[in-house]
């Protein structure tokens, strides 16, 4: 992408309404524009990051054997009356009436709708286990939408639902989700810690939230410092193996890590004092096992091996896709701007031409741009007629992992400069070696 032809509306001033770094930086870097309270348009740069996060979530879900679908945002109230949640949900649900006076709602979550799909088409235990998921916009009429996309009213969520014959199978699905979530967040360059949590309006007993530690997080968390040393890494896992998934769950949940809702000081105080941590975190996901709560209420049964109809055991599992954009920035920024991890960066490489209009510099930039793009990298070439200082400031603000600086002086010596956004370190390198250095 050539910046002269792109749409990157960066702001010079720090917007006064933004209280936390990620919100300020998303506005300043031209990633989002507020449409109304808690509702945002995604501008080109922000949209690229959102898509990258979605892609990783899709890949990791499908790696775990989960099947993508897409359900609508608008739902009929009748389904929610069947489960009893139409009345129970409260003012966070946006209720709508259509022209025929039918009650509709903008879905805050999809347990009812997926259970309806399941009961319409599946009737035998032989079709199980099954996990369906989608990535779709949700609406929750939050009392205090704030912190930009972190607590929006309209937000993008991955929500997945498992259907199993027995509680045991459903707990395997729970563990499988925990493992796949660990992989998902790590691939984005994030550490998200599974913590025991409270189930809220979804219902059920078994639930973990995934929290990214950050001072600006809305949840208070209590944990054993040993937990932050755990890494999932690049281990191979067989998602069908009950034993493998169970042992990952045990490894990642055996140390104390809880949100304030389930915090138990008596247990916490048994941890050696130097390992006790009280901090804040951003919830980027949650997994639940809730058994037959919805299947019983809505008649989602399968015929078991014994020929008897039994309600399926279910769980639901969410990832805050749009919130992750903010959480990633909270965890990756400095005083100059965003510092994107490679996997989610809107572009991996920025080219800065410090002397636009100089024939040699322009030709060298064009050649690099073509070569890097052909090598499969996503490149943003700042080809504007701008001062070098302004170009550097923009690159630092939008946080691309690598910057290549091209100017007549370096080219005379046969080199360009390659700079790492995170460390700030630069090296001189021959232009023809850049592609190899980055791939
Ligand atoms: N208002 C929101 N804005 C952005 N993301 C959200 C919002 N509410 C929930 N999410 C994301 O969706 C994920 C799954 O939804 P879940 O039903 O667990 O949310 P929740 O527990 O109600 O969230 P919270 O406690 O933050 O209100 C959450 O872990 C979070 O990352
Ligand atoms: Mg939650």
From TrEMBL:
All copies of domain Aminoacyl-transfer RNA synthetases class-II family profile, residue ranges: 33-341
Bilayer-spanning residue ranges: none
Keyword entries, A-Z: Aminoacyl-tRNA synthetase, ATP-binding, Cytoplasm, Ligase, Nucleotide-binding, Protein biosynthesis
A Pfam family: HGTP_anticodon
Catalysed reactions, semicolon-separated: tRNA(Pro) + L-proline + ATP = L-prolyl-tRNA(Pro) + AMP + diphosphate
SUPFAM superfamilies: Class II aaRS ABD-related, Class II aaRS and biotin synthetases
Binding partners and assembly: Homodimer.
InterPro entries per record: aa-tRNA-synt_IIb, aa-tRNA-synth_II, aa-tRNA-synth_II/BPL/LPL, Anticodon-bd, Anticodon-bd_dom_sf, Pro-tRNA-ligase_IIa, Pro-tRNA-synth_IIa_bac-type, Pro-tRNA_synthetase
Function: Catalyzes the attachment of proline to tRNA(Pro) in a two-step reaction: proline is first activated by ATP to form Pro-AMP and then transferred to the acceptor end of tRNA(Pro).
Protein name: Proline--tRNA ligase
Species: Psychromarinibacter halotolerans
Family: Belongs to the class-II aminoacyl-tRNA synthetase family. ProS type 2 subfamily.
GO MF annotation list: proline-tRNA ligase activity
The enzyme's E.C. designation: 6.1.1.15
Location of this chain's protein in the cell: Cytoplasm
